[in-house]
Amino acid sequence: MFRKLFSLSRVHHGKCLRLVQNISSNVTSSRTGSPAAVEASQTLTVTPRNVGAPPVDMPYMEPYLTAEDDPRNHTEEHLGLWYNISREEFKRIFHPFSLNIEYNQLCETFNETSFMIRRPALSVMKYLKQLNLSSMTPPRFMFYGAQGTGKTCSIAHVVHFLSRENFVILQVPWVDRWLKQFLKKPAEILPSAKNPQVWDHTTDASDWLKFFSTQNNEMLKKLQLKSFDQYQFSTRENFPAGSDITKIVELGISRPRLAAQVVVAITLEMKKHASQGNCKVAVVLDGINSAFTEESIYKIDHVDFYTKETWKYIPAQSFTLVQAFTNMLEKDWTNGVIIGSIDYCCRKDKDKSTYNPRYILGQEGWEALDPFVPVPVPEYSPEEFESAFAYLASKHWIQKHEALTPDGRALIAALSERNPDYLLRICAPL
Amino acid sequence: MLKNFLLSQQISSIGSRFPAAPAQFAVRSYAIYSPDKYLEPIYEKEQLEEIFQNKEIKERLQFSQIKPAEQSRSWSFFDHPRVNRLCNYVMKEGNKVLARNLVEETFTRIKRKQLRAYHTAETDEERRNIVCDPLTIYLGAVENCRPFLDLLPIKRGGITYQVPVPMSEKHSYFIATRWLVHAGRDRPTRRVHFPENLANELIDAFYGRGRVVQQKNDLHKQCEANRAYAHYR
Asked: What region holds the Small ribosomal subunit protein uS7 domain (chain B) (predicted)?
């Protein structure tokens, strides 16, 4: 949609010249006002050319980097700076769908993964440091904002923080993936053994368990958690109380048919372990609003009395995996935290009239999440835009000398509305 | 702001941009400006500034008629006349929006592939040899694919001979770009998208390999073989 808009709009560059000039004067005036982030960056920049000298005529800008790669130590001084995650840690913590495709491609191109330190993620981290989680029901932090403003990247930053803080993380990279696949062939689902009205995912559930075990590999080894209850998944697979949690996870990975039931068992066990104080548990759900919709691509036979339709879509709450994670939203446990994002991208109708949480969640979702701390994720501020642009230019993503001039930067700022996603798209063919 | 651009475009398309067109369908609306009466518009900002500073040229241009600027052109660094040409060759059924998107996607893929190689290279020497600018690659590819001779069928004594004739510079640019676009459209499988295929073809042609360069060499060889008919021209 945006590409269409952009290519239509860019034939009017000539017309917007005057407008751009106005904006450029604004930007320069605000930059001379000594913003805290840019000032701090001058003290914190490290040697930027980690890939060696580029060809003489390649466009290049000094990036705003910080050497502080531990998110626990990030403070307001680091606002607007970029920090780097090592490749091994990135592969361990994140699923291929944890970030969107374009950001993943960019990381692959640059052969490194970096995030900008921004206020939404920083504020959540600050709250988490101050709260005493063991004496309260899990607080909920929900990122919301327009498309492409960095909700998913904020979640990624927080997840990095949580893994360093020794949380056991139950992360769903994109809830909507269980309901509407982006592939041609939908994933396999089966009616549940206990309740045939409810549906089990097979491969998706075992994939999630694999992700869970890699993400929390170190923590699970260290904690050696035992199950509280007895679980009988089939006539042969019986786990008495006190058996290893890792063994139950391994069963789910090797037997996709039972994987969904294993996910339910794991979530219930984690709740109890957290309440007992054995470990801290974080539930991370990106695109949480799709758990409360009637929308999926799966159909079942159903005769409607009025419309005479012979089928209907399976609602989200009729899937075992979705039920398992909505169960985690209840207030019957302590020593945990719930982090999510509210995103209209996963709405079937793609209604972009507003991104307000109440409208997107609907009555059901609002009641399930209430009360929560809404964390707005805005577009880049002028300083953040400058930092993002410099990072892209330092990686030679922008190959035009004219684009790096103040006029060029102002033009791109105006066209992208300082939206991170639009900025990437506009700079892509340059 | 983007929405405002869209709105302004809709409004401008409703209002009459050109004087009343002679035909019922304004298909040749730009052609009504005859070249002997109207001058070509100038899109380069620096060139315009030079003109404004020079009094003689300014006075001469002040009272002469100039064609209206094309909508798809601008002075900004997003615009390049040769890239605009490529968009026109890629375009089908007047769908310029799609054509431009495909060309942009092609450039992105070129840049991504080259930058990936650049950032994973180990020595400085390797890095110096990698060209990352998609525009340079596109222009170089066309330069490598330009033929200098063409075969023209000419009838002499009831027999049609394929006669080698020199090709004009403008035509050679057209032929080279068209060959590249056609090579891009001829995909190995349906899984490979047009931008991806075109990007690969352009990179190949830039480094002097690939089938479009081969096509040019074949044409030159054929002309060489038909050298005996050259006097029929």
From this structure: 77-227
Q: State how far the Cα of A201 lies from the Cα of A175, in Å rounded to an integer.
A: 13
Does B196 touch chain A if contact means CB atoms closer than 8 Å?
no
Residue from A289, A300, A273 nearest A355 by CA? A289
**Whether residues A245 and A312 fall in one domain:** yes
What dihedral do alpha carbons B12, B16, B18, B19 form, nearest 10°? Answer: -160
Residue to substitute from A109, A391, A409, A411, interface B, most B β-carbons within 10 A: A109
pLDDT band, very low/low/confident/very high, at A56 (cuts 50, 70, 90): low
Q: Which pLDDT score is estimated for A12?
A: 35
B12 vs A157: which has the higher pLDDT? A157
Instruction: Examine residue A371 and say whether the peptide bond preceding it is cis (omega within 30 degrees of 0).
Output: yes
Q: What is the pLDDT of residue A323?
A: 92
Q: Is the ipTM of this complex over 0.90?
A: no
Is A368 in the same domain as A383? no
More confident residue, A60 or A35: A60
Residue A412 sits in which domain range? Answer: 2-10+37-117+379-427
Say if residue A297 is in the same domain as residue A357. yes
Residue A214, pLDDT score: 93
> Are A52 and A82 members of one domain?
yes
Q: Contacts of residue B117 in chain A, CB cutoff 8 Å?
A: none
Which residue, among B86, B111, B138, B191, would best test binding to A if mutated, counting the most A CBs under 10 Å from its CB?
B111
Where are any strands of DSSP class E within A117-257?
140-144, 167-172, 189-191, 199-201, 231-232, 238-239
* pLDDT tens readout for residues A377-415: 999 999 999 999 999 999 999 999 889 999 899 999 999
Domain presence at residue A123: no
State whether B75 and A54 contact (CB < 8 Å): no
Q: Are residues A372 and A383 in the same domain?
A: no
Is residue A30 assigned to a domain? no
Residue A199 has pLDDT above 80, yes or no: yes
Q: Does A208 share its domain with A313?
A: yes
Domains in chain B with CATH codes: 30-76 (no CATH), 96-232 (1.10.455.10)
Amino acid at B174: F
Q: Are residues A103 and A147 in the same domain?
A: no
The structure tokens 């089908």 sit at B92
The C-alpha R_g of chain B, in whole angstroms, comes to 23
**Are residues A329 and A238 part of one domain?**
yes
- Taking only the tens place, the pLDDT of each residue in B144-161 is 999 999 998 988 888 998
Q: Per the structure block, which two tokens stand in for A269? A: 């066990």
Number of domains into which chain A is organized: 2
Cβ contact B74–A395 (<8 Å) = no
Residues of A at the B interface, defined by Cβ within 8 angstroms: 2-17, 19, 51-55, 58, 105, 108-112, 395-397, 399-400, 402-403, 408, 411, 414-415, 417, 428-430
**Number of cross-chain residue pairs from A and B with Cβ atoms under 8 Å apart:** 105
Provide, as residue numbers in chain A, all residues whose Cβ is less than 8 Å from the Cβ of B127.
Answer: 51-55
pLDDT digits (tens, 9 = 90+) for A221-267: 999 989 999 898 888 888 888 889 999 999 999 999 999 999 999 99
Torsional class of A240: left (φ above 0), alpha (ψ -120 to 50), beta (otherwise)? beta
Instruction: Indicate the range of A267-281, B5-19, B162-176 predicted with least confidence.
Output: B5-19
- Residue A28 inside a domain? The answer is no
With a cut of 60, say whether residue B13 has pLDDT above it: no
3-state secondary structure of A58: coil
Residue A22 in domain: no
Chain A interface includes B116 (CB < 8 A): yes
For residue A366, the tally of other CB atoms under 10 A from its CB is: 16
